[in-house]
Amino acid sequence: MSAFIDSLIDDMTVEEKAGQLTLYTSGWAVTGPQLRDDYLEELKAGRAGNLFNAHTVDYAIKLQKMAVEETRLGIPLLFGLDVIHGYKTTFPIPLAEASSWDMDLIQKTARLSAREATAAGVNWTFNPMVDISRDPRWGRVAEGSGEDVYLGGLIAAAKVKGYQGDDLSDPSTLLACVKHFAAYGASQAGRDYHTVDMSDRVLRETYLPPYKAALDAGATTFMTSFNELDGVPASGSKYLMTEILRDEWGFTGFVVTDYTAINEMVPHGVVENEKQAAELAFKAGVDMDMQGGLYSRYLPELIKEGKIKESMLDQCVRRILEMKYKLGLFEDPYRYLNKAREEQTLFSKELMDHSLHSAKESIVLLKNEEVKGAKLLPLSKSVKSIALIGPLADNQKDMLGTWHMSGDASKVVTLLKGIKETAPEVTVHYASGAGFGDSDMTGMDEAVRAASKADIVIMALGENYQQSGEAASRSDIGLPKSQQLLMEKVHTLGKPMVAVVMAGRPLSMTWMEENIPAIVNAWHLGTMAGKAMAEVLFGDHVPSGKLPMTFPRNVGQIPVFYNMKNTGRPFDESNKYTSKYLDIPNDPLYPFGYGLSYTSFDYSNIALSTEELARTDTLSVRVKVTNTGRYEGKEIVQLYLRDLVGSVTRPVKELKRFKKINLKPGRSETVHFKLTYEDLCFYTRDMSFKAEPGKFKVFVGPNAMEGLEADFDFN
Ligand code: BGC
Fold this sequence. Notes:
Elements: H1 2-11, H2 14-20, E1 22-25, E2 27-29, E3 32-34, H3 37-44, E4 50-52, H4 57-70, E5 78-81, H5 94-98, H6 103-118, E6 124-125, H7 149-164, E7 175-181, H8 200-207, H9 209-216, E8 221-224, E9 228-229, E10 232-233, H10 238-248, E11 254-256, H11 265-268, H12 274-284, E12 289-290, H13 294-304, H14 310-326, H15 339-345, H16 349-362, E13 364-368, E14 370-371, E15 374-375, E16 385-389, H17 415-422, E17 427-431, H18 444-452, E18 456-462, H19 481-491, E19 497-502, H20 510-515, E20 518-521, H21 529-537, E21 601-608, E22 612-613, E23 619-627, E24 633-643, E25 654-663, E26 668-675, E27 682-683, E28 689-690, E29 694-701, E30 708-714
The protein binds beta-D-glucopyranose.
């Protein structure tokens, strides 16, 4: 590889080199895929070495042919795409799938997405998005794995392994791109693209580890983030791109910017013009320019002026050509472009089955109270009539969630359809009732009429696909007002009510929690959404998802997350001068790790192998979990640690392990966890990563707020 690439680089002009560092988008017009004429010219001249949003075999073949046959050196193109939760077959949004806490499932979603996307010519996905976020106002929480560093790291690694497989030259694998480096999820006030500022300690302890976990799992490319960090935009940050990513972590792949992020350093205000921006990004360690065209325009000039060394340019080119080589593109530029494979793979049974499985595992049951002496859920299939009300009840497009760009809404199973298939005997009165704006209430009367005819009311409420995702921050994260009013009005009928909430973020739904007896949080579940929800509602599937992100009571409580600090005045109800609000409790509406089942689980007999742990010891923690209910079900058993005293303050709890178990009614399992020295380490006062002697608490339970406790000392 290295001899081949060296000789290729020897043949390249500076313009062609800058071209390999350039990535442009293709657009999809009404009539089909299209590339702007000026980009086509750039491509043929060797000044655009990579494309994104150019998928489907027919289209990609044309473009690849152009690169191979019409450019001077015939270097094949990379084809990138945001395959975020599926290509055509759409899986649950990432935040939903994180609720499964099931790494095999998540890895398989990535594997199958890669298989489907590569069959349509894609060889590079801009995923996983591993930005930790503690702010549900930020619309992009939908694309990530929530608030926790440990869970986030495991998911990041699972996705990279799923996308890249073991062999990049296998035509069913693609390059993964870890994004957005770094700390994009901490934008101030949850407003997208906004400023990020945090201590190096928080950066390293909470935000960086999932990117590192993705790298350790073999991630081949990284994407910069739009935000600044400590006053420097990420795409111009030598600290991030060179000192941390390459020097500390040893990354050898290539770094691409986010969309026009180099150009945006001008409005950020760290450079006067785009030429300076290109120089800053290049010197910071950014290899590829997405969409901005600045590398192609200015690098040759900057080299001529002696501001940039050509040897540095060669290094970036080498990193990109290496990836093309590893994908097998020099051997066969059409390796990913096989029409027959495309036809066989899209929407295959294996993909659709996994989409359903994943959707069911992603559903979180938030509340299930007794109505007339029995838990409201699951519903009996012999119930006479149901009213299904709400704008998400028979809605295909919004089930796909954010970033479903290549998904196909016509294939989506809606909740209405899912219920008809799952409980065919039940009469369903359907009415949409409201919309997604605050004032869209034209259907209210019809909905109330439908509800009054039924024995049970299911309300399908929440956000549409555009109300979360990129550039979709919200300052009020309740239900749209029209839906809230609809729910309150229907509630006055006094019928048993189930709320099914579909959204791309944790919603604050305090009224619902106080008034509606059963609440199912279904996120945006993808192609098989309606079938998965119906199976849960009628008990064919027992829900087991747990929240990967805290649900606040209201926006004023944000940021609220489980691993906060204790403060010097921890909450004390009887003392005004403690850390709290006058109007709401400190506790969230639903904590991290929370989720119910149709069955119930009892935790008992927590036992530690030792109360005195030495550096080389392993601590075994055992706990007995018993299914005390009437259904077979899964439970995600969670272990948290607290380091009571440190040279710097420590969080009140940190997730360190979990295990998803399945138990038949009446059965018990002793769940066994092992902890070692590494699990006790943190960035101490002098920023060295180590454990300090002292007292620790272990908690094992069903979520971050409940559980059994035990103590040990580390010496
Ligand atoms: C997003 C990225 C995405 C890129 C390419 C940007 O606007 O921030 O996450 O990969 O567009 O579509």
